[in-house]
Amino acid sequence: MADLLIWMVKLWNVMINQFIAMVSWDFSDFSQTLYESAVIVNQALVPVGEALCLIMFLMGLAKSLENAPEIRPVFIIKHFGRLIGAYVCVELSVRFMMWFWKVGIGLVQLVSDIDAASPLIDEQEAETIGASITALLEFDTTGFNLLTAPYVIVERVMDFINGMIPFAAFALLSFLIVGVIAIALYIYILARFMKILITLALAPIGISFFAGEPTSRTGMVFIKSYMGDCLFGCVLAVILKIYGVMMATDIFQMGNGNNVLTLLSGTGVAAQSELWQYVFQLLIKTILFAVMVFGTRSFIKNKFEM
After folding, report:
1. Of 226, 186, 147, which Cα lies nearest the Cα of 23?
2. b/e for 215-226, b at 16 or more Cβ within 10 A?
3. Structural domain that includes position 53
4. Number of domains in the chain
5. What is the full DSSP assignment across 122-184?
6. What letter would DSSP give residue 253?
7. Distance (Å, rounded) from C-alpha 276 to C-alpha 271?
8. Contact status, residue 187 vs residue 17, Cβ threshold 8 Å
9. pTM above the 0.90 mark?
10. Which tens digits make up the pLDDT trace of 169-206?
């Protein structure tokens, strides 16, 4: 049990350190090969994007001519200006998309420079808790003799079952949940980079929708979605700062100075109350962190409409 706790804490700290590094990654830090492949696909789709620009332009022009009572020079300039702008952006789609990415990285650096508590779990405290768990799991054989041994064994076995079995089951489940969350978060953040690379590769097609006035909304949705993905790293950096403060805070402390989990001291597990508090707080804080990270995309969409 103690080894599992220490392994879980080390795994979580490795994942948190990786998250801190990943939020400021460039594409070359993620995978230079994948980035180059996305750029190759992007350049291959540029002719397709240019052809779509012309199609979107003609569709928009035809729709506007149908509804316009008269043709004015401003009308023609506006439509041709939209076509030229979209055409140039398709040609320079890699640079255009990378500019948004660089802005996102800059915001991450600004947030990362803010001083805050470390989001890492204290490994020395975990080792101390692990030693306490090991001591409690050891069966006390002192005071045995031939006359009292059966009664003492029954009494201590019952104390062990009532006190440590529930805690051991809860702790084991908590450690497994924390480990699964750490791996799931790592995969989730890696998937963000894959999504950005796919968007970069398909940029000529998405940008081409700006060439036509009726289809420009689709192009705007494409760009805003990409901007939201680029902003993901900044929001995650803020979450890491908040999580660091949360790790240094007793989130179950009540206004009168008591702790919510001290209620356990009246349920026959007073000796393990400190262990219950440690494991329960670790589990709740980890779940809160996971909820914040998994809800980042929804938060960006609702608050910034990206």
Report:
1. 186
2. bbeebeebbebb
3. 2-304
4. 1
5. -HHHHHHHHHHHHHHHSPP-TT--TTTHHHHHHHHHHHHHHHHHHHHHHHHHHHHHHHHHHHH
6. B
7. 10
8. no
9. no
10. 777 777 788 778 888 888 888 888 888 889 999 999 99
